[in-house]
Amino acid sequence: MAEKIKLSVDGILALESSFIKVPYEQLKKANRKAQKFTEKELSNLASGVADLAKGKGSGAKDPVKALDAMIERMNKLKRKLDELKAEETMYAGKLAARLSHLQDLAHIRTLTAPEFAAWAHLRLQRVLLDYLMRQGFLTSAKLLATGSSSHSASDASGSVMNLAAASAAAEPMAVDTDPTPAPASQVPAPHPVAGLVQFADLEFFTHQRRIERALERHSCTEALAWCHDNKVALKKLKSHLEFNLRLQEFIELARTRQLVPALEYAKTHLVAFADLGHTRAIQQAMALMAFPPTTTCEPYRTLYDSDRRWTALAAQFRADNFALHCLPPLSALEATLQAGLAALKTAQCGGKHEDRSINCPVCVPDTFAVLAEKLPLGHHVNSCYVCRISGEIMDEDNPPLVTPEGYVYSRKAVHEMAAKNNGFFRCPRTHSIFKVAQMKKMFLT
Amino acid sequence: MDAIAPEFDKFVARHHAYVDETSAGLDGLIATLRAARDQLAGTDQDAGAKKAALAMLSLDVKGQTSKIMDTTKDISSALAKCGKAIDKKFGTADLEWNPQAFEGKDHLIRQLIGEHFIREGKFELASTFQKESGLSAAPAKNSQFQELNDIIESIRHHDLGPAIEWAESKRFELNRIDSTLQFDLHKQRYLQLLADAGPRSPGLMAAIEYARKYFSQFPACIREIQPLMLAAIYAGQPTAPATYRTLLARATSPTAWSNLERQFARDFCSLLGLSPDAPLYTAITVGTTALPIIMKMSTIMKEKRNEWTASNELPVEVPLAPRHQFHSVFACPVSREQGTDLNPPMMLPCGHTICNESLKRISKNGSIRFKCPYCPQDTTMAQALRVYL
Ligand SMILES: [Zn+2]
Ligand SMILES: [Zn+2]
Ligand SMILES: [Zn+2]
């Protein structure tokens, strides 16, 4: 019946950047931290010992004490490295699981393969997880990722109705044609959600949330530390975040009229940005010292507008953090949902009751139907006839029959009903009754 | 992907070595420092010897630290290579083609997520999510979903007991929808018993006893029952004919189990008047293949500065699996237009169907007899019948 529709693997993979990049960037960060720390400590040690040998430096008077201190530092380095290595191993594990999940797709040839249904189900779980984390629903995200609740634990392999989504109807004999039946010893029922923890970027989003919270509390410290950690990447991004954070700290000093510290702050932290195109903003900031927070004079009033500026800072931080990790502004859940609903949407969706289908998501009132309102309809080059009675696709084996009133049903459904009703067919839409012989075959075009 | 895997494997292998080597390296370094310290702390050494010991130590430390540094740099460069391969394959992904579509509808997305968790029987998650996301009302808990999910879970663990029990209790309803579920469950259970028994006769007798007890309830399935009973002869025999080997293999075949699982979900939901797949799952599965096609089109359109999201139809076809085609769609073979209420499909007496606009054009508004574009039969506009798909 249905020809096998080939799966475009590369197209799907192209949309998965952040799925790979988030753990990779975190792995890189942990690794860089370890490298820097090691470098610093080891070179300090080497020069310290060299000084001792030459009888130079502060430790020369008591080399034993100096060596004790060095041993202590090395122990500290070792502990710190152990932590970072564990972190690296964790992110490498996530990366491995994700690469292999994406690799699985390469072995799936068609849209109708049971493996694709299982793969798509796992993808649904992880885009849901991603949505929950983006929205800051971290408790729910954790619960979904670990399935730690009592019921969810037993349900850890996810949803049921979908998972099996192997198209039983399309290929009922699949098993009989299976050339290599699995030996009795291995029962590889796929348990996709077992790997969901590896697909959750909880550390990433928790960290992001912590910095956002700090900004909500009007503290720049955490965000500035984050800027420091990502200096190179932010520069590449031409981010203004660090400057705006510095500016904010300056504004807060001006607000409380601590003018001397404000001036000092400007000298140490703002002037450096003058070359980076912020000269005007710095001039404005300096002038701010002449205006009290109650001023109505622009642009100083706006600069003192606390709520707006802090909200903007949080948004800017979030955008930069997303950009650094290739996280698109729109969540994969929403983007995929838009595409899926548009592809499924037909003129009949959500229309008259008889036109709706219980299987069609776009026909679900109040939620999906409303979401699909502003989406275009799917485009179809070929006709597709779905029987209103059986829901089956009509094709050469089960062609459409037309009642004298013009209503179309599949031959199978018509004959089944007629067999139970002495050869009569009752149209479910008009309730008229016909003999099967009165119905006409329609050509598939 | 093919370029990333080898680089990543290399990194992982090196990382193991790195973890061990730096650890051992630091231990060695600490031991060296300790030994030197103890030597210096000793009282039996003169100043000259102490000085010599420090010089030795300095040399030693230099050697050891540079070795650790080399390992550290090594792992970083392996990681960087991996990063290059990743950057090459994964650029910045743009997922937006219709930015206004969901504007102001966040609450609906939350609502359907909550309903989805219920649908999957994840009730605790659903209520946690409701509280955390501020959903006004908890989606109604439906104990039937719990039952469904519990049964499916046991099928997944190859335990058919709960499914058979449920099917028995719904015997009448299942018959009404012409479901073969009950028989198919018993069949799988029987094959399972055969597989467990192997060629041993006590187990075999149990399987045959099972068949005797239950298969007799399904006289209509006699054509299927015969080969099943014959299969008992071949249980546990690797030399069995292919037909029986594959039949017996069903007991452990993942495809057979997943088909059964789906069949169960379909019939269960059918009795409830629900779709067998959760709507969110269907929409996201379709979207997974649709999104790249739409994004590609959108990029091309943007380059040509064509605004198309406002138009009422996607400019490109997204292939749908048959089980995702829920509504009939008429595409006129003449004009390629999709049928609408204003331009409905019209069937000619020969059985060929074209759209009303095309019909008007070909028949010059009904003024002439014309030949069907797809067969030799000629006809008039008045003879055409409007069809409702
Ligand atoms: Zn619909
Ligand atoms: Zn036409
Ligand atoms: Zn014709």
UniProtKB/TrEMBL annotation, chain A:
<dbReference type="Pfam" id="PF10607">
    <property type="entry name" value="CTLH"/>
</dbReference>
<dbReference type="GO" id="GO:0034657">
    <property type="term" value="C:GID complex"/>
</dbReference>
<dbReference type="GO" id="GO:0005737">
    <property type="term" value="C:cytoplasm"/>
</dbReference>
<protein>
    <recommendedName>
        <fullName>CTLH domain-containing protein</fullName>
    </recommendedName>
</protein>
<dbReference type="GO" id="GO:0008270">
    <property type="term" value="F:zinc ion binding"/>
</dbReference>
<keyword id="KW-0963">Cytoplasm</keyword>
<keyword id="KW-0863">Zinc-finger</keyword>
<dbReference type="InterPro" id="IPR045098">
    <property type="entry name" value="Fyv10_fam"/>
</dbReference>
<dbReference type="InterPro" id="IPR044063">
    <property type="entry name" value="ZF_RING_GID"/>
</dbReference>
<dbReference type="InterPro" id="IPR013144">
    <property type="entry name" value="CRA_dom"/>
</dbReference>
<keyword id="KW-0175">Coiled coil</keyword>
<dbReference type="InterPro" id="IPR024964">
    <property type="entry name" value="CTLH/CRA"/>
</dbReference>
<dbReference type="GO" id="GO:0061630">
    <property type="term" value="F:ubiquitin protein ligase activity"/>
</dbReference>
<feature type="domain" description="CTLH">
    <location>
        <begin position="204"/>
        <end position="261"/>
    </location>
</feature>
<comment type="similarity">
    <text>Belongs to the FYV10 family.</text>
</comment>
<keyword id="KW-0862">Zinc</keyword>
<feature type="zinc finger region" description="RING-Gid-type">
    <location>
        <begin position="360"/>
        <end position="430"/>
    </location>
</feature>
<dbReference type="InterPro" id="IPR006595">
    <property type="entry name" value="CTLH_C"/>
</dbReference>
<dbReference type="GO" id="GO:0005634">
    <property type="term" value="C:nucleus"/>
</dbReference>
<keyword id="KW-0479">Metal-binding</keyword>
<dbReference type="GO" id="GO:0043161">
    <property type="term" value="P:proteasome-mediated ubiquitin-dependent protein catabolic process"/>
</dbReference>
<feature type="domain" description="RING-Gid-type">
    <location>
        <begin position="360"/>
        <end position="430"/>
    </location>
</feature>
UniProtKB/TrEMBL annotation, chain B:
<dbReference type="GO" id="GO:0005737">
    <property type="term" value="C:cytoplasm"/>
</dbReference>
<dbReference type="InterPro" id="IPR006595">
    <property type="entry name" value="CTLH_C"/>
</dbReference>
<dbReference type="GO" id="GO:0043161">
    <property type="term" value="P:proteasome-mediated ubiquitin-dependent protein catabolic process"/>
</dbReference>
<dbReference type="InterPro" id="IPR044063">
    <property type="entry name" value="ZF_RING_GID"/>
</dbReference>
<dbReference type="InterPro" id="IPR024964">
    <property type="entry name" value="CTLH/CRA"/>
</dbReference>
<dbReference type="GO" id="GO:0034657">
    <property type="term" value="C:GID complex"/>
</dbReference>
<feature type="domain" description="CTLH">
    <location>
        <begin position="144"/>
        <end position="201"/>
    </location>
</feature>
<dbReference type="InterPro" id="IPR037683">
    <property type="entry name" value="Rmd5_dRing"/>
</dbReference>
<dbReference type="Pfam" id="PF10607">
    <property type="entry name" value="CTLH"/>
</dbReference>
<dbReference type="InterPro" id="IPR006594">
    <property type="entry name" value="LisH"/>
</dbReference>
<dbReference type="InterPro" id="IPR001841">
    <property type="entry name" value="Znf_RING"/>
</dbReference>
<dbReference type="GO" id="GO:0005634">
    <property type="term" value="C:nucleus"/>
</dbReference>
<feature type="domain" description="RING-type">
    <location>
        <begin position="332"/>
        <end position="375"/>
    </location>
</feature>
<dbReference type="InterPro" id="IPR045098">
    <property type="entry name" value="Fyv10_fam"/>
</dbReference>
<dbReference type="GO" id="GO:0008270">
    <property type="term" value="F:zinc ion binding"/>
</dbReference>
<feature type="domain" description="RING-Gid-type">
    <location>
        <begin position="332"/>
        <end position="375"/>
    </location>
</feature>
<dbReference type="Pfam" id="PF13445">
    <property type="entry name" value="zf-RING_UBOX"/>
</dbReference>
<keyword id="KW-0862">Zinc</keyword>
<protein>
    <recommendedName>
        <fullName>GID complex catalytic subunit 2</fullName>
    </recommendedName>
</protein>
<dbReference type="GO" id="GO:0061630">
    <property type="term" value="F:ubiquitin protein ligase activity"/>
</dbReference>
<keyword id="KW-0863">Zinc-finger</keyword>
<keyword id="KW-0963">Cytoplasm</keyword>
